[in-house]
UniProtKB/TrEMBL annotation:
It comes from the Bacteria. Keywords: Heme, Iron, Metal-binding. This is Discoidin domain-containing protein. The keyword Chaperone does not apply. InterPro entries: 6-blade_b-propeller_TolB-like, ARM-like, ARM-type_fold, Cyt_c-like_dom, Cyt_c-like_dom_sf, DUF7133, FA58C, Galactose-bd-like_sf. It holds the Pfam family Cytochrom_C. The keyword Oxidoreductase does not apply. Residues 757-899 form the F5/8 type C domain. It comes from Negadavirga shengliensis. Residues 636-730 form the Cytochrome c domain.
Length: 899
């Protein structure tokens, strides 16, 4: 045993003895306030000043109260327990707290019921997020050795991590995890049984991303279909005996939380959006928009904390100082245990750490579509509320003991440093309540009910046989079923196939039948005959699961299933019809468009109508994209930009570029729309600088809930792809941006250390000059448009284009005279293939006689941009050819920019 392990072991023995003794105080009575500077708790309390330049009449600040107040002081866990408001019959108890754990953000249980804790020990240790990426975070593992309900023995399974994204138990003494700003998932194993991982193996790649730590991949989760899903990634991965495979999916939109229900529907938890996402259908079939899926009032939280300390500011503050619109969410769980009242089973729960609540979501199915609402909206309450401002629920889990566990980071700041910058509303409120130094805590709570004590059955799956695992598939607690299925698939022991087939065919437990079928699929032992029999099952749920599982058989050659998909698209149950359509679509069966059109004609249920309509739209969009007229390089940028946008940007800016609704009434937007935006379609410097350095504050007088954070950790190709996509999608036509251009802007602004304010940024951006009647346009040569007439050079500003009469010759020129001197900065134009100016020079003059050459350019197919750094005032701008070509010189959509 190494020294650190010895010290932990000794501490745990002491703690266990301490708990077993009759003491007036438990370890949960020790207050973190004892670690604070006592001076801060004494008056006079600091006066917080409004930062300079702030408009106190803006919605974010208007009505703000910055009266000096006593600081928020952390409580012991025993004292915090008294601050919870629970529903009748429910209780909440601490089972693991600081100092044993610090900054817990998520938990997972392994096959022996041991709890892995993701400890993000560098998260917001001060108001400026200093040291955020230091390698000091860890994954610890805990167990209850005497079965008294308290986790009393812990080991540091994995230490020295850079802000780890998730922990996935993956067999005996093995986990999967990934660090921030990494692209790789690794498998970590403890090979010698000392409780510490000593072997690291690459598991999968391509799942990571860089940038803000709140906007990176999280919660990799093994689902019932044997695929693994995570936030942000528009792909799923799967372990197989031959290696890890990947498939594309729709955009999950999630930020911090992935869970599944009893039927394998994966739910993703949005962060800033504050609501669940993609819970209608499996994400592999893409994204579907269901109007009204969040019922009226869903976005209104009922919080008992009234400090108005949230990023949107006073505009999302109720008169009593509490939050009026969900603005942050973290962690999620569809409760599937057996030791809480039955009405909770299948209900979705998530934490709103800004509102200090845990919400219970009630869902209803209507004609194949799901609609959700706050379970307690009628009483304007929540499943769990707290009056303690430091209650920060970041994860929820169904535990092996059949109850619900809640992870509480218990801290002052819950928003990352991009939202607490100097001059921000949130920073001002944090300082008012002196919450910036309340760090290093963390609690895990167990929720129980008076009528149902927790189960004391301790999992010991790692010591059991595969045959014993099969029996767990009938367990009333979904955690047991999930873990047993995972272990069976990882073991790949075909000796249990007969038992699984028997369970599918004869068990009276529908959930056990479903798990057994998917286990067969994971073992490569699912047969066509079985799924066809299940297609006839009396239960719509079994028919749906058989359809989903049959897709694997189709991929491996069972093309005769097409007939089954067509037949089941006429099923009497709308959810079965939807699944048949989605399977046919994702597998691209023959004449799937005719099947969809037929469904629209014959089935008037809302769900099939919506799904058939939106799939047809997806297919048409795919055809249009394939037929794009972009050059190969432009097409590459566009497609890459679309993938990034769908997986990252759409959560705030909307999947159609119209912005994502927010606010208590849904009438506001998280972020500005891109569709038709003159800023986006204007000079590309605006979008590039915004992505590189972030943007804060009102935009043209309008404030948004979200803050655009810096994306400069991504490379130039990534930035160019995103900007190119948003400038050419959503009805926009703004031209493409090259990685070279991004590199230029990055270099010019390399010394910038903070977000742009909009008014500051807009002063830097070259502004397009719109052609006026008093502009004089001329050229040395202009082609004939028709018999007896010439092509007007002013056509250069339109789609019609200007062109020389013959091949390009050195000395040919094109000129624009403006009515007054202007600080010209850049010229842009489009040229068709082969008709771009081969080599040209750009000159500026104040009188048309004396010229200053600002540089030389080389033309290319498509969009051309030429800019210069020198500040030159001029009335005339001229392009002249330096080198000739056999093709004519053609330009259209010419744009002049000035600073």
């Amino acid at each position: 045993m190494n020294p650190s392990a010895k010290s932990i072991f000794s501490f745990c023995i002491s703690l266990s003895l301490f708990l077993s003794c009759s003491q007036e105080k438990s370890p949960f009575d020790i207050s973190p306030a004892d670690r604070l500077d006592p001076k801060r708790m004494q008056p006079p309390y600091p006066q917080i000043q409004i930062p300079e330049g702030i408009d106190l009449e803006s919605p974010r600040w208007k009505g703000i109260d910055l009266t000096p107040v006593p600081p928020v002081v952390p409580l012991s866990a025993s004292e915090q327990k008294k601050t919870f408001v629970l529903k009748p019959g429910y209780k909440i108890e601490p089972i693991l707290t600081e100092p044993q754990i610090k900054e817990p953000a998520a938990i997972r249980f392994d096959g022996n019921g041991r709890m892995y804790v993701l400890e993000l020990r560098t998260y917001m240790q001060d108001i400026d997020a200093n040291g955020e990426l230091l390698p000091t975070s860890r994954i610890s593992r805990w167990e209850d050795t005497n079965n008294d309900g308290i986790y009393d023995k812990g080991v540091i399974f994995l230490d020295g991590l850079v802000f780890p994204r998730f922990v996935v138990p993956f067999g005996p003494n093995t986990i999967l995890s990934m660090e921030s700003n990494e692209d790789h998932v690794y498998k970590y194993t403890d090979t010698n049984g000392d409780g510490k991982a000593d072997k690291k193996e690459l598991f999968a790649t391509g799942l990571g991303r860089s940038g803000n730590v709140e906007h990176q991949t999280s919660f990799l989760t093994w689902a019932m279909d044997n695929w693994m899903y995570s936030t942000y990634n528009s792909r799923r991965i799967r372990w197989t005996p031959d290696g890890v495979i990947q498939e594309p999916t729709g955009n999950p939109y999630g930020q911090w939380g992935v869970t599944q229900d009893n039927y394998g529907q994966v739910w993703f938890q949005d962060g800033a959006g504050g609501v669940p996402q993609n819970f209608q259908f499996p994400i592999v079939y893409g994204n579907f928009q269901v109007k009204g899926q969040f019922q009226e009032g869903f976005r209104v939280p009922y919080s008992l904390v009234k400090l108005a300390d949230f990023e949107p500011g006073m505009r999302e503050t109720k008169p009593d100082g509490s939050l009026n619109n969900v603005t942050g969410a973290a962690g999620n769980d569809v409760f599937r245990g057996d030791r809480l009242p039955r009405e909770l089973v299948g209900q979705y729960f998530y934490g709103e750490p800004v509102g200090r609540i845990v919400r219970q979501v009630h869902s209803e199915k209507e004609e194949g579509l799901t609609y959700i609402q706050n379970k307690y909206i009628d009483t304007e309450t929540e499943f769990i509320q707290s009056t303690d401002p430091l209650f920060r629920p970041t994860d929820i889990a169904t535990a092996p003991d059949g109850t619900m566990y809640i992870v509480d980071m218990y801290r002052g700041i819950i928003q990352q440093g991009n939202w607490t910058q100097e001059g921000s509303y949130l920073r001002t409120k944090i300082l008012q309540y002196q919450m910036d130094d309340i760090v290093g805590n963390g609690r895990i709570w167990r929720v129980t009910h008076d009528d149902m004590p927790r189960s004391k059955e301790k999992p010991r799956m790692y010591e059991e046989t595969p045959a014993e695992w099969v029996k767990h598939l009938e367990h009333p607690n979904g955690w047991w079923r999930d873990m047993a299925q995972q272990l069976l698939v990882l073991k790949q022991d075909k000796s249990v196939v007969k038992n699984l087939v028997e369970m599918v065919n004869n068990s009276q437990n529908e959930l056990a039948r479903i798990h057994a079928m998917w286990t067969l699929e994971g073992l490569g032992a699912l047969k066509l005959e079985m799924v066809r029999n299940l297609f006839q099952d009396a239960s719509p749920a079994m028919r749906i699961q058989a359809l989903r599982a049959s897709e694997t058989l189709y991929k491996y050659g069972a093309k005769s299933l097409e007939e089954d998909y067509i037949r089941l698209a006429k099923d009497k149950d709308p959810s079965v019809v939807i699944q048949a359509l989605q399977s046919a679509y994702i597998l691209k069966i023959g004449n799937v468009d005719k099947l969809l059109q037929s469904t629209l004609q014959s089935n008037k249920a809302k769900g099939p109508q919506l799904v058939a309509t939106q799939i047809l739209q997806k297919m048409e969009e795919a055809r249009q994209l394939a037929a794009t007229q972009y050059s190969p390089r432009e097409g590459e940028l566009f497609n890459k930009g679309k993938a990034i946008y769908d997986g990252y940007c759409a959560a705030c800016h909307g999947i159609k570029g119209l912005g994502t609704p927010t606010g208590a009434a849904g009438g506001e937007l998280i972020a500005p729309a891109f569709s038709g935006s003159p800023r986006i379609q204007g000079h590309p410097e605006y979008a590039v600088k915004t992505l590189l350095h972030g943007l804060t504050g009102a935009i043209e007088g309008k404030e948004y809930e979200g803050v655009m954070i810096a994306m400069d950790s991504n490379d130039d190709d990534w930035i160019a792809a995103v900007v190119s996509y948003i400038r050419n999608e959503f009805g926009n036509s703004g031209g493409f941006v090259t990685p070279e251009y991004v590199a230029q802007i990055r270099n010019e602004t390399r010394d910038r250390k903070s977000n742009y304010a909009y008014d500051e940024l807009i002063q830097e951006i070259p502004k397009v000059l719109f052609p006026q009647d008093d502009w004089k346009v001329s050229a040395s040569s202009t082609a004939l448009q028709g018999v007896g007439s010439t092509r007007d050079p002013s056509y250069v500003f339109s789609h019609k284009s200007w062109q020389t009469e013959g091949p390009q010759k050195a000395g040919m020129w094109f000129q624009i005279e403006l009515p007054r001197p202007t600080n010209l900065a850049e010229i842009q134009f489009d040229s068709p293939e082969g008709e771009y100016p081969k080599k040209y020079a750009v000159s500026i003059s104040s009188d048309g006689a004396q010229w200053t050459e600002v540089g030389n350019g080389t033309g290319e197919n498509g969009s051309n941009t030429f800019g210069w750094d020198r500040q030159i005032m001029g009335k005339f701008i001229r392009l002249h050819l330096v080198e000739g070509s056999e093709r004519p010189w053609t330009m259209k959509k010419l744009r002049l920019y000035a600073r």
